[in-house]
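Reference record
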Amino acid sequence: MTKEQLMEHRISYFKRPAMTVTTKYKVSIANLFEYIVGMHYTEETWTLRSIKDDKERKAYKAKHFDFVTFSGLFSYRKDECLVQHSGLMCLDFDHLGERRWELRNRLIEDPYFETELLFTSPSGDGLKWVVEIDIGRRDHRTWFRAIQNYVRQTYHEEVDEKCVNESRACFLPHDSSCYVNPILDSPLDFKGDTLITNQDAGEAESSVSLKKETDNEE
């Protein structure tokens, strides 16, 4: 993607909890990079990773983390309510263990799919790989199957099957090692741009009350 495309607000941003299904906010890749490497949800991320019980960990994540739909803007968080596709797809790799850093480095150097954003999952044991796809050539689900097969053949890893959905939600953790397309190489690419911006009038209102976030929020 071009620098201008990476700074366009083409991704729906949803405030916690996970049951939120409508929003009036949208963000860019540049916004999300700044958000993930910043101090937002640092405490929540480490708390989540300290929880051993799977059910308790899932409930905590659903309650305490904001999330986005990387593949576009939605009037309602379900596939048929896609307003505009972003030209992006987020692929989830789960339960990587010691393979995580090696896979991360290989994905960054992938010769066929340009990495726009790559960060450690909230659990600390997986990766979120955001790549560009050309919707003009193939639809979202065809691209998913193609990339899924490519990953199997090239990296011998499995991508979460749920990523096939256009409205797939991705929780946003803290990750100081988050990678972003180096075309965004200047501090000016991030300065002065807000994390959350209003969508055009007439699009969906948020289904939860919104308030300014602070670093010491519960």
User: Anything to note?
Assistant: Residues 197-218 have pLDDT under 50 and may be disordered. The longest helix spans residues 140-155.
